[in-house]
Amino acid sequence: MSILTYLIPISLTLGAVGLVAFIYTVRSNQYDDPEGDSRRILSDEWDDHPKP
Amino acid sequence: MTALARPMPAAACPGCVATPAEMPAPPPEEARIALSLPGIHCQACISTVERALSAAPGVKSARVNLTLKRAMVEADPEVRAADLASLLQGVGYEAHELDAGALAATKTDAAGRALLVRLAVAGFAAMNVMLLSVSVWSGASDATRDMFHWISAMIALPAIAYAGQPFFIGAYRALRARRLNMDVPISLGIVLALVTSLWETSLSGHHAWFDAALTLTFFLLAGRYLDHRSRAIARSAAEELTALEVPRATRVTDGAETEVPVAQLAVGDLVLVRPGGRMPVDGEVVQGKSEIDRSLLTGETLPVFAAPGLVVSAGEVNLTGPLTIRASAVGQDTSLHRMADLVAVAESGRANYTPLADAMARGYAPAVHILSGASFLGWYLFTGDLRLALNIAAAVLIITCPCALGLAVPAVTTAASGRLFRKGLLIKHPTALERLAEADTVVFDKTGTLTAGTPEVENLGDHADDLPLALALAQGSRHPLSVALTRAARAAGVTPVEVEDLREVPGFGTEATWQGRTVRLGRAAWVGAPEEARTTAWLSDGEGTPRPFRFHDALRPGAAETVAALAASGKRVMLVSGDGEGPVRALAERLEIADWTAGALPADKAALVHRLGQEGHKVLMVGDGLNDTAALAAAHVSISPASALDAARTASDMVLLGGSLAPIAGACVTARSATTRIRENFAIAILYNFVAVPLAIAGLATPLIAALAMSASSITVSLNALRLKGTK
């Protein structure tokens, strides 16, 4: 059962990474316009260079 | 719930985290101009609008929000919103200026965001602890079990300390006010579960309740978040309605006109109000002649003649000619705002309503505490084992913890208000649906509520010979009566005669020369006709007696059907108006309303609603004017149309977004169905308790049973709430 020594920290770390990533998306206003963002991705307007 | 459905989107896309430069630019920091774009719907719309706005001179940046159908523009101070709006109209999109100040509150929904992060933390912790618990339930023992319990404790303690704060704070407030609410048993259950679990773990016991405490927190936060979201959506839509009326006025200083925000006007300023504009201040007319429409304030449909010396109030609409007003009261001192005092007095009508959830909590919380306390005492006295007794008390609290009860109301109200929102009814107040379900008496205002506020010619048939001349005169004016006459005559296929020197005399009517005679269409006194007590325009062709064109207000779409449907469902329908007796009686007869009152002052309306309330009726008030505001606030539940004054919309619980009254009858049905679902949900939640509580008291409940009962009841309750959508 010594494998648990590795598995538990690994699973906790992965979960924590997901949690931190989620908090980051909330903090950076990524849920302000879900409908618009899902459509913007279809636009090829800024494909070659980022929007200035 | 989009955020819940995919809780960790960035985890699948590590690049997003590594290259923050690619994240969507946040909306411009100091967005000076906000535009409402009701017509946008696709990617091409976003690109076109953003390109058009960015190309405009002086615009620094522009970003469209498709969810809110809004564009935020950061630009130089000299750029005017009206120019940008007409620019967008040019590329084919309807655009309206929004008052950025009124939108400030929706910009960052800090409370919603904090709740979402708490929900995520609780969810993360609950999932991890649940994984560890599953291993314990499936047979991990001795040192492994102890280790799993300790890890669970390490995750659960900080997670609950952070995520559970809304409940702890709510419980603390309630206790300090010597009341009991749902937060009290929730907090007590969670804390007791953590304490006994820690104790058990330190003694390497078999059962720990960390998973139960966390799942409980997670489900309850989900209910809170749903509740918050449906309220935030309603608030943002209500704010948008307010923001559409940009408070701006034209100030005249030494003959020069400048456009300034209404807030900057001072007493003594000269303000120019153009035809069609609304008075921004109280004051006195110093220059110009016109007619003004006072219907939003008094309910009177008859336009009032305005000339220098007339005192006007904020909110009245100028009809024909430009008027210059000397401000006598501005901002908070205007009669519009003074009305708020009346509203504050009337507010009591709603204050003594107990929401279903609170009524539930009032009975439930003490029962749970007594049950838990009794089982603790019983076991302690019976066995003398403090640890066992505490364990059982915690189990009882956890099992009875109102997890499904916390979801019972928000799940239903979210479903119902989403459904009504799509039909065009905005629910502003959290308990409005419950109160609407109880309504048995409906009181309607007349002008602007049952009627559309646009006049209609009543006696077109009497004037077959005069119509060509009347049309020729009416065409030359923007006065609502002339517009209505023109529309009706054109629809009847009338061709206007040729007239010369057509001109509008503000405040009186239109005048022209026809066959060498002066012909007039306008007010009674001006054309030499007797005054009438109703809305009438007179036509004089220079010889013979003037002929009257009588008008009545056009019905608002859906008014007749709504009144009929409400009456059919057994509700008492009443009509109360500030207008004169003639028009009110005519409308009441048209809509078959037996119960009507004319000439009611604002205080009379509120008193009537109050009296009905004291007689035990639950009154639904539907009104739009300033004169209805107090009655709207005094009623058990109230609805106002989107065209209503801001003050009236603020005072009411629900707002009709479209022009039609039709959603009201449907809303009553949905509200009743929603209340039934809420009661069913309470019944389901209590049924689970009936099954599980005896087990807990008998000391047979394990964390596994608690987890199963809790999840099963929460899911059943949510599914039951969704059934609402299926009902027609």
From TrEMBL, chain A:
Q: Where is the region Disordered?
A: 30-52
Record-linked InterPro entries? Cyt_oxidase_maturation_cbb3
Can you tell me where the transmembrane regions are? 6-26
Give the record's keywords alphabetically: Membrane, Transmembrane, Transmembrane helix
Q: Which domain of life is it from?
A: Bacteria
Show the ranges annotated as biased composition (Basic and acidic residues): 36-52
- Designated name of the protein: Cytochrome oxidase maturation protein, cbb3-type
* Organism, as annotated: Seohaeicola zhoushanensis
The coding gene here is rdxS
UniProtKB/TrEMBL annotation, chain B:
The compartments listed are:
Cell membrane
Q: HMA domain spans which residues? A: 31-96
CC terms in the record's Gene Ontology section: plasma membrane
Question: Transmembrane segments in this chain: where?
Answer: 115-138, 150-172, 184-202, 208-226, 363-382, 388-413, 682-698
Q: How does it sit in the membrane?
A: Multi-pass membrane protein
- Provide a Gene Ontology MF annotation, just one: copper ion binding
> What protein family is recorded?
Belongs to the cation transport ATPase (P-type) (TC 3.A.3) family. Type IB subfamily.
Stated name of the protein = Copper-translocating P-type ATPase
This protein's species is Seohaeicola zhoushanensis
